[in-house]
Specification:
Alpha-Beta Plaits; 4 domains; six-stranded mixed sheet; 18 strands; 49% helix; elongated; CdaR_GGDEF; Sugar diacid utilization regulator; PucR_C-HTH_sf; PucR_C-HTH_dom
Length: 527
């Protein structure tokens, strides 16, 4: 496979159109090669690589824009929110640095534009050796837009936008929201589904005209490979298509189908390669540095995140698809925070390697990043995330990965979901689980007073072990312990006397109490 040349600034602007980005000031030509997307952080030293696009989050005013242009003169462009303050000083600085100044529509979020730009740069990165790169989906969408004289979106089976044409600003607010979010709004999807339009589109071999009351009509056609539905093409129109344009849409659907099949193979190859490289980094061996270099991830001050869906589906294919979408979302989230982060699916766990700035609270910040991610994916992905301790370099990444795995296991053992745990916060629980593993591996069983209680309960049908557990959990408060097991306090005191007689346990001895509590935890006798 060969690497496809990076997109130029002009191509990105042509694909996105004025719906998202507009040129506020240009140094002249816009054919500068774009190498990546980076987010400006005023608290960090700016080290923008050649050709990078810098997202100027929170930057406004001519003076600040000039300062940012000077600092980013190695880049291809900077993006600030509209309205952009452009005066003679700004124009002069644009000409001096050769960096284009772009305005982002206020309706878009920074995470949205970061996702849009990264998807454009990633489009068609891999192709067969010796072949020219095929036209990408954005080019196909723009070509179809010209043929049909209508804004186009190409979507997958879940109504996620894979590509879109220019001229989206000619459509309606629903279409603009779809493009900005790269996803058809849920309310719009539900309306189309309830009215049976998806069923008609997937059952009909040709285009389907969809009259809408509060927005422009749509014409949609399913994209097929044999009997399999790969996605759909949508055009925002003002009237039904002519026969000639219908045939153009049918032919375009066949081309898009070939592209999606080719893209699926390429995506699977990239994901396998990404997973193999990240696995090598996580092992922290002699090949970790080379793998980190190929992935483009940082090699110092890293935290590992281990994320896992809490509710795998019964259908294996559907479960794998859900895990992959979850991992893709995690990769996008950490990539927006730091350009040298990476994520990949290894087995059923999505791992992310997140570079951290020196602050003394790196693990706590990584926990906040994970919490922010779960709050964003929310009800779509019911998951837990474990966070490892800071790794000073690649040699310590394996330890951070083990920490993250153990933190994730603690959350699973609690039976919770939608939670994040840093290793420092669950250290003792993780140690107890490891002790339980050791005891199981060596086929060890309870001994001493606790073992005698378990044997007596098994032989007589009593619950003296549960009585002891309630007593210890309540710090010796008999009334609270009795309430926990739903008996009268006098009954509880009688049971307490019986268990001390039978087991020989001295409840006044702190060492004996600790031993009993550890026995319950290690051998599973707990709530």
């Amino acid at each position: 496979m060969t690497t496809r040349p990076r997109a130029s600034l002009r191509r990105i602007l042509d694909d996105l159109g004025s719906t998202v980005l507009d040129v506020a000031a240009s140094p002249g030509g816009l054919d500068t090669e774009v190498t990546g997307v980076h987010i400006y952080d005023p608290l960090d030293e700016l080290m923008l690589p050649s050709g990078g696009i810098l997202l100027g989050v929170g930057v406004e005013g001519a003076e600040h824009i000039c300062d940012l242009l000077e600092a980013a003169k190695a880049g291809s462009g900077i993006v600030v929110k509209q309205p952009v303050a452009v005066d003679e000083r700004v124009r002069a600085k644009v000409l001096e640095t050769g960096v284009a100044l772009l305005g982002l529509t206020r309706a878009a979020s920074w995470s949205q534009v970061a996702a849009l730009l990264r998807s454009l740069l990633a489009e068609g990165d891999l192709t067969e050796a010796g072949q020219s790169p095929p036209d990408d989906l954005f080019s196909l969408a723009n070509a179809l837009c010209a043929l049909l004289d209508a804004p186009i979106t190409i979507e997958d089976r879940s109504s996620r936008v894979l590509a879109f044409s220019g001229r989206q600003d000619e459509a309606d607010p629903g279409r603009i929201a779809t493009v900005l979010g790269r996803q058809v709004p849920e309310s719009y999807q539900r309306m189309l589904d309830e009215q049976g339009w998806f069923r008609k589109i997937y059952q009909n071999p040709g285009p389907v005209y969809i009259p809408l009351t509060e927005s422009l009509p749509r014409v949609a056609i399913a994209v097929r490979s044999g009997d399999e539905i790969l996605g759909s093409i949508w055009a925002a129109v003002r009237e039904p298509l002519s026969k000639q344009r219908e045939w153009a849409l049918i032919d375009a659907a066949k081309i898009v189908a070939l592209h999606l099949l080719r893209q699926r193979v390429g995506a699977d190859t990239r994901r396998r390669l990404q997973a193999d490289l990240l696995s090598t980094v996580l092992e922290g061996g002699k090949d970790a540095a080379e793998a980190a270099g190929r992935l483009g991830v940082a090699s110092e001050r890293l935290c590992v995140l281990a994320a896992q869906l809490a509710d795998d589906q019964i259908d294996a294919a559907q479960s794998e698809s859900s895990r992959q979408r979850f991992c893709d979302a995690l990769a996008l989230h950490v990539g927006a925070i730091h350009p040298k982060a990476a994520a990949a699916l290894v087995g059923s766990v999505a791992y992310a390697v997140l570079p951290m700035h020196a602050s003394g609270e790196e693990e706590a910040r990584a926990v906040r990043v994970a919490q922010s991610f779960l709050s964003r994916v929310g009800p779509r992905h019911n998951a837990n995330i474990g966070v490892g301790r800071l790794a000073a370099d690649l040699g310590e990444v394996a330890r951070s990965r083990a920490d993250a795995d153990r933190s994730l296991r603690v959350l699973r053992s609690r039976g919770v979901s939608g939670q994040v745990a840093g290793y420092s916060d669950v250290h003792f629980e993780a140690l107890l689980l490891r002790l339980g593993d050791l005891a199981a591996a060596e086929e060890q069983t309870p001994t001493g007073p606790f073992q005698r209680l378990l044997r007596y309960d098994a032989e007589h049908g009593t619950e003296l072990a549960a009585t002891l557990r309630a007593y210890l959990d309540s710090f010796g408060d008999v009334n609270a312990a009795a309430a926990a097991v739903h008996v009268h306090s006098n009954t509880f005191r009688y049971r307490l006397r019986r268990l001390t007689e039978i087991s020989g346990l001295d409840l006044a001895d702190p060492e004996a109490r600790l031993a009993a509590m550890l026995m319950m935890r290690i051998f599973g006798q707990r709530h």
